[in-house]
Design goal:
The chain is α/β, with parallel strands linked by helices. It contains 34 helices and 22 strands. The strands form six sheets. The chain has a six-stranded mixed sheet, with helices on both faces. Residues 239-312 form the Threonine synthase N-terminal domain.
Length: 737
């Protein structure tokens, strides 16, 4: 058996003599002492007895990078090909492969790996080592596996320049590209850390990225979350005010009424890293982006990859998941309605339930509370229905929606998605009441304490106030930009504008976060309907609800006056001033208004533009676009189209977020298309729309849902906090007791 251990002669020196030697060196040559100490401390604190194991395809640079990392840490470097396989076989790897063939080679390679042992070393695996499960399990138990993820096109170019014409698995009829794609499943299975490597990047820089990634992996304290209302003094004095990703997924809303945000901000990607994702699939992009935002101590990379694969796999009807379609001129549509409930909410809510189920402790039951202005309810109910049976027993969902404030098809969806552990209740009020009520329930310690003691049940939120709802939305904004580059619409680095129908400010905030992470977004344009409080705020800096009443429009998902996620944005541009956020939003709650200081308004207006449109303009836009292109916009996308037409300066492309499928708003669409007689039956309305043969086709999931729920029913309650709490308690009793 191979044993390669790091030799540490300092262990042979007594502590007393070592102290004398250090003191003498420190006094006589302080700079040299500092360099020696830092080198020794960095390698021993980073590695200990663990190995750094570099994994990746042939041509990823594992050997070169391993040598550089080893030099920086002053520790042994082991190349499996050179130091283990060829030493054992007494011949080159290529000769062995040619001698015994592909399948037997993998087995012999795995056997050699099983006999290998090392400690405190940097190990460079062969490109095919990960294909032998037993060998990888043996190596992985003593180390941290770092996946050098290099785009396939870059690898193929490197192998060609290196004149490599033989790798494990290459045979007539199988291309090099196919082999590299096939191997990814094995790399994804074993890695602890991914280091994403673009095309124009030196081995020295990759080595630094490896060291930074290992440090991050070993220190979850680097990635904590704070409340938007946490003051600087509290942050310095109260360590308990900091939370981890798993904590904020479970808690949703901070105890002080604020929203959780990452204390050190979001990770920044280099231009090379983004360019390396141009050829990637949506799922691959999501994995790379979310791994950098979620610490592996909260969710290991392999588990996160599994969750992402489940979320964006068969549940979406389009293989591209979030395709970008050219509309007209320099306007493009980001189609966010290919999920099971036909709205952009599916992107977060196919993922978030699995994140939540992984993070919660096994000793407690959880009730998810949801307030919806239309699309969130069915998306939450559908998302949590995909959990396994064990998790369904521990997690229930209660969805509140404005009884008369959603479309008939949205209501049918919410009724149809009800399960034994998931109920929908219509409230005789508007969305703002539902959202405010949920916030108050969360901060009602008497009620939440009662549920915990009496029923062993805790409350959690699935609205966009939950960080796990917001985070996945960053991915599709980044992906849309990369798609424009991939389609040769723009070169990487050229700016775009984004226009988003906006109510609760989550979707547009995710676009701004994508910009912070390195996507070249110039302006985020906020599009409102006649509930245009955000438009007024962005133009004047005054958020004023006094005298405003919510107006029911054809775009109900943005019929919102209190935009919760705005607090996260203001916290960011106000240099994380938690005290100011407390002041502003307490004033909004108590007096119905607040005003930004001039410097903050100027910052805001550098990032955001805003406009609104009437219902008449919305319907006219739907008719106009259909007449000229044969494409049907939903009512929310039409709002954004009207605002984009007014505000864009046409110097760069603009991506309009198409946040829902038009089928969900059939009566308004039929009115826009000037159909004289409209059947009130939702199913008949969809059949009528499908007869037009327009783009996009009728949504596959909506027809199935309506067929199942023509005779469905649900509960309706008064706009009373006590009544809502009663419904919550009844569901808990029925499901958990």
């Amino acid at each position: 058996m191979f044993h390669i251990f790091q030799y540490r002669p300092l262990r042979l020196i007594t502590q007393k003599s070592l102290s004398r030697m250090c003191l003498k060196l420190m006094l006589s040559r302080p700079v040299a002492f500092a360099q020696i100490w830092n080198s020794w401390f960095s390698s021993h604190s980073l590695l200990g007895n663990k190995n750094i194991i570099l994994m990746g395809p042939p041509g990823a640079g594992k050997t070169t990078i391993g040598r550089i990392v080893g030099r920086k840490l002053d520790c042994p470097v082991i190349d499996i090909d050179d130091d283990v396989l060829e030493t054992t076989w007494k011949m080159s790897v290529s000769e062995k492969l040619q001698d015994i063939g592909y399948e037997e080679f993998l087995e012999e390679e795995g056997k050699a790996l099983l006999k290998f042992s090392a400690s405190g070393s940097v190990i460079s695996l062969s490109g095919s080592n990960p294909m032998h499960a037993a060998g990888m399990q043996h190596v992985k138990k003593d180390g941290i596996v770092v996946y050098l993820d290099v785009p396939t096109t870059v690898i193929m170019s490197r192998l060609k320049s290196m004149q490599v014409d033989r790798i494990v698995g290459l045979s007539p009829g199988i291309s090099l590209k196919d082999i590299l794609q096939f191997r990814k499943q094995f790399y994804n299975r074993w890695y602890d850390i991914r280091v994403f490597c673009g095309e124009d990047i030196t081995a020295e820089i990759v080595a630094e990225k490896v060291l930074d990634a290992v440090k991050r992996y070993q220190d979850s304290e680097l990635e904590t979350f704070i409340s938007t209302r946490c003051s600087w003094s509290r942050r310095s004095m109260e360590k308990d005010s900091r939370k981890y990703f798993s904590d904020v997924v479970i808690q949703g809303l901070a105890p002080d009424g604020g929203l959780f945000v990452p204390e050190r901000g979001l990770p920044k990607f280099t231009a090379g890293e983004w360019q390396g994702l141009i050829e990637a699939t949506y799922i691959e992009r999501a994995q790379v982006i979310l791994e950098r935002c979620i610490h592996p101590a909260d969710i290991p990379a392999s588990k996160l990859a599994e969750i992402i694969g489940i979320a964006y796999g068969e549940n979406f009807s389009c293989s591209k998941v979030a395709p970008v379609r050219h509309l007209a001129g320099n306007q493009f549509l980001l189609e966010l309605f290919h999920g099971p409930t036909a709205s952009f909410k599916d992107f977060a809510l196919q993922l978030m339930p699995h994140l939540f189920a992984y993070c919660i402790p096994r000793s407690c039951n959880y009730l998810i509370l949801v307030a919806t202005s239309g699309d969130t309810g069915s998306a939450v109910l559908n998302g949590f229905s995909h959990l396994n049976d064990i998790d369904k027993q521990r997690i229930a969902v209660m969805n509140f929606f404005p009884e008369d404030g959603v479309s008939p098809i949205q209501k049918s969806q919410m009724i149809g998605c009800q399960k034994e552990n998931a109920r929908s209740v219509g409230v005789k009020s508007d969305f703002d009441f539902c959202q405010t009520a949920i916030k108050q329930i969360f901060t009602n310690s008497d009620f939440t304490g009662f549920l915990t003691v009496e029923y062993g049940t805790a409350l959690a939120a699935a609205n966009s106030i939950n960080w796990a709802r917001l985070l996945p939305q960053i991915v599709y904004h980044a992906s849309a930009y990369l798609d424009l580059v991939h389609q040769n619409i723009i070169p990487f680095g050229s700016p775009i504008d984004i226009c988003i129908p906006t109510g609760n400010f989550g979707n547009i905030l995710a676009a701004f976060y994508a910009k912070m992470m390195g996507i070249p977004i110039r302006k985020c344009i906020c599009a409102s309907n006649e509930n245009n409080v955000l438009t007024d705020f962005i133009r004047t800096g005054v958020y004023d609800l006094r005298g405003r009443k919510l107006i029911s429009t054809f775009s109900p998902a943005v019929d919102i006056l209190k935009s919760s996620n705005l607090e996260r944005y203001l916290h960011l541009i106000a240099n994380e001033d938690g005290q100011l956020m407390t002041q502003l939003f307490n004033q909004l709650e108590n007096q119905g208004h607040f005003q930004l200081q001039r410097d903050l308004l100027e910052k805001l207006q550098q990032d955001l533009m805003a406009g609104f449109c009437s219902d008449e303009e919305c319907l006219a836009a739907i008719h106009s676009v259909y007449s000229t292109t044969g494409y049907i916009l939903d009512t929310h996308t039409a709002v954004a189209k009207v605002v984009a037409d007014r505000l864009q300066d046409r110097t760069c492309p603009i991506i309009i977020s198409s946040t829902a499928h038009y089928s969900k708003f059939a009566p308004a669409i039929l009115q826009a298309l000037r159909i004289a007689e409209i059947n009130q039956n939702p199913l008949s309305q969809l059949h009528l729309l499908s007869s037009y043969g327009a783009l996009p086709p009728i949504h596959w999931g909506l027809l199935e849902t309506l067929k199942k729920t023509e005779n469905g029913d649900h509960q309706v309650c008064a706009a009373d906090m006590n009544v809502l709490m009663h419904h919550i308690e009844i569901l808990i009793q029925n499901h958990f007791m």
